[in-house]
Amino acid sequence: MFPELKDFMDGVKDIMRKERYTAGLQEILVDGEFVFAFTFKKNDEEEFLTDVFNIKTGEYISSAYFSGVPNLIKDGYAYYMNPGSQDEFPKIEKFKIEPAVYDIK
């Protein structure tokens, strides 16, 4: 990356932080009939607030905090993929999503 472009982007990030501006959603993932809407809002542990909706009914199901935005959600599991480097093997982490996240309240 060009140093000037990196400096510009860092400046934009600083302005956005100071103004407390964040976009509404950073990622949307689908697992069967469930939609996970990852926001930029974080808790004290730096986990991202995620709202879960049922795509068939269009209803809000629940909210949960994720330590990061997974690359994939499938069959109730969140997958985080780290490609590694020339000296490391790629790493895939698999985490079971708490079943309560899918419960209608």
User: Mean pLDDT, nearest integer?
Assistant: 84
Overall 3D form: globular
Instruction: Return the structural class.
Output: alpha+beta
Total of DSSP H or I helical runs spanning 4+ residues: 1
Order of helices and strands: HEEEEEEE
Helix content class: 10-25%
Q: Please describe the biggest sheet, giving its number of strands, its sense, and whether it closes into a barrel.
A: 4 strands, antiparallel
What oligomeric arrangement do these chains adopt?
Answer: single chain
Low-confidence stretches: none
Q: How much beta, percentage-wise?
A: 35-45%
State the strand order across the main sheet.
Answer: 1-2-3-4
Tell me the number of strands: 7
Report the end-to-end length measured between terminal Cα atoms. Answer: 47 Å
Radius of gyration: 17 Å
